[in-house]
Amino acid sequence: MNSSKASIAIGISQIFPCSYLDGQQEQLLVIQEDTLDPILFERLLAVGFRRSGGSIYKPRCPRCSACQPIRVPAHEFVPSKRQKRTLAKNQDLTWRITSEQTAEQYALYEHYIRERHFDGPMFPPSEDQYNHFLFCHWLPPTFIEVYNDDKLLAVAVTDTLPNSLSAIYSYFDPDEEQRSLGALLILIQCRLAKLMDKEFVYLGYQIDENRKMSYKRLYRPYQILTPTGWEYSQVC
Description:
Layout: E1 8-12, E2 16-17, E3 25-26, E4 28-33, H1 38-45, E5 50-52, E6 55-59, E7 68-73, H2 81-89, E8 94-98, H3 103-116, H4 127-134, E9 142-148, E10 151-160, E11 164-172, H5 181-195, E12 200-206, E13 223-226, E14 229-232
Parallel strand pairs: 11-12
Antiparallel strand pairs: 1-4, 2-3, 4-6, 5-6, 7-12, 7-13, 8-9, 9-10, 10-11, 13-14
Subcellular location: Cytoplasm
Protein name: Aspartate/glutamate leucyltransferase
EC number: 2.3.2.29
């Protein structure tokens, strides 16, 4: 075997307790590859896969189908009245995009996990966990940073692909909860995708049964991946 060739591994994970729904069991279809073309990765996104570190995964749970891939058509997105209020109350903030990983970003992530997710699988936070979760060598992420003057308030870690943006993870200053910074980051991603002439913003999995994971339906219109393909929501 030629060791210089890229290797690929495809497999099914062990069944383990679900991180999102109590009493459910979780199992993943996992693809691990030394290198992956962004065009191919975008095709995998379009059939329901996501990225965690350098691994590509898709739920393959034995008795549950609660995780629904969801995406927003960037050029069709229209902020709701509530989202317009979120934008208005954060007009004093500025944002920028960068490819640079900084200690300031990690410090904010650590504060966020300790305050908001101390009862979850990402606690306690560590730099090794942070790096393993967010980064892969074949697709360096984009960081969308939100500032109040010189203070970093929020970060959206985002994959920039030929035809889309894919939201990997967002975190923010838990002491600024009244600003709705999580919502603001999604609104910025939708705005950025439109400015960059991208077709979609992939938001990951919509899980209606989990209160913390049910917010993605607020960004309309959206599309849900069904067994027959992507379908538009019923917009109210």
